[in-house]
Amino acid sequence: MTSGPFLKNAWYAAALGEELSETPIFRRLLDEPMALYRGASGRAVALYDRCPHRFAPLHKGQVFGDDLRCPYHGLRFAPDGACVHNPIGEGKIPKAACAKSFPLAERDGIVWLWWGDQPVDESTIRRWREFEDHANYRAVQGYIKVQGNYQLVSDNLLDLSHAEFLHPYLANEGFNRRTQYSMEQAGNTVIARNWRPNEPISQLFAFAYGENAPSHVDHLSIVRWEAPSTLRLEIGVTRVGQSPEEGPRSYQAHLVTPETADTCHYFWKWGRDFKLEDEEFSVRLQANMQKAFETEDGPMIEAQAQYMDGQSLESLKPVLLLTDSASLRARRVLQQLIEGQNGS
After folding, report:
1. How far apart are CA 239 and CA 247, in angstroms?
2. In this protein, which residues make up the domain named Rieske (predicted)?
3. Is 4 part of a structural domain of the chain?
4. pLDDT in tens, 44-101
5. 48 lies in the same domain as 109
6. Are 165 and 244 in the same domain?
7. Is residue 194 within 8 Å of 158, Cβ to Cβ?
């Protein structure tokens, strides 16, 4: 039993593709302990991280081909969880010797976990084709674990007004006063738009333009949230009055997966269509973005969770601002989906 409730029959990010190798890792996802690894064939595998024999942690075992061997008594389990080798005695395999296997699919450098009891539908995986288009885009990525409920991270991303105060290198003083904010819902997708015409250019986009950077730009950011906690963020600037397609843009994936009801995993990928050959910039960008999440967003969300002291957002009756509308709508959509799956 999970301590959720979590939305079932949905895709959750389990890992970044480069995290997985023939050395298994442990990760608790949706309150399920899992051993994650990549087999010799390149296939990503997720098995319940407890051997059915003497309950040893499978992630401490060794990969043989695509199979995982228990570190305690050597039972081997295939990617589908079936025991395929017993080194003890005559090698008879007990019928109950199987480990639960979780469906995975890998797209755009992201390993997705299907969590639910309905048939897997890979067509519903959120795509970021920019991450695979190396001719036109470059991407950096990172991961942090957050001591807070996963919806708090979604709240943070759907309301970018905090950038003025937490990320001054990304936003200028007073930029919230200059923002034209709007929110809409399309099906179960919640979209938050922030439009800032004639905005003083930030340090990041001044670097993107180089020596001919304008002093002011039209700045647009669009956040698209999809249940349960998948967010696409696009940020672009143009010279004042130009079409949005004419300036540098970034394309970001922010993927939040519950570890438990009170902790979560946060995966991010940050793609760009400028300075494609500047590897030094990629290294600095990755370090700066990771630092921002580790030392700015993360600690604030964790402090928020601590001060909420296990109480729900609704029960605390928060004061509401204009820019809260998208996060509140996303919470409402998710709650309705969860209630629908539970027959409430």
Report:
1. 7
2. 11-113
3. no
4. 999 999 999 999 999 999 999 999 999 999 999 999 999 999 999 999 999 999 999 9
5. yes
6. yes
7. no
Q: Measure the CA–CA gap between 244 and 240, rounded to whole angstroms.
A: 10
Written as six digits, the tokens of 184 are 């809409």
Structure tokens at 21: 């190798």
The amino acid sitting at 143 is Y
What is the spatial order of strands in the sheet that 67-69 belongs to?
A: 62-64, 67-69, 76-77, 83-85
On whether the pTM is more than 0.90, the answer is yes
**How far from chain centre, in Å, is Cα 200?**
30
Residue 318, both tokens: 């928060």
Please name the residues in contact with 76: beta carbons below 8 A apart, sequence gap of 6 or more.
64, 67, 68, 69, 70, 83, 84, 85
State the helix-helix crossing angle for 298-308 and 150-158, rounded to 10 degrees: 120
Total domains in the fold of the chain: 2
- Tell me: pLDDT of 129 over 50: yes
- Compute the distance between CA of residue 82 and CA of residue 212 in angstroms, rounded to an integer: 61
Radius of gyration over every alpha carbon of the chain, rounded to an integer in angstroms: 22
138 phi/psi in degrees, rounded to 5: -130, 150
Please give the C-alpha separations between residue 326 and each of 91, 166, 248, 250, in angstroms, as whole numbers: 58, 20, 26, 21
Nearest to 269 by CA among 122, 128, 124, 113: 128
Q: What is the DSSP string of 235-248?
A: EEEEETTS-GGGS-
* Best CA proximity match to 227, nearest among 122, 131, 313, 337: 337
Asked whether residue 212 falls in the same domain as residue 319, the answer is yes
Q: How far from each other are the two terminal CA atoms of the chain, in whole angstroms? A: 19
Residue 118 belongs to domain spanning: 13-124
Strand partners, 226: 189, 230
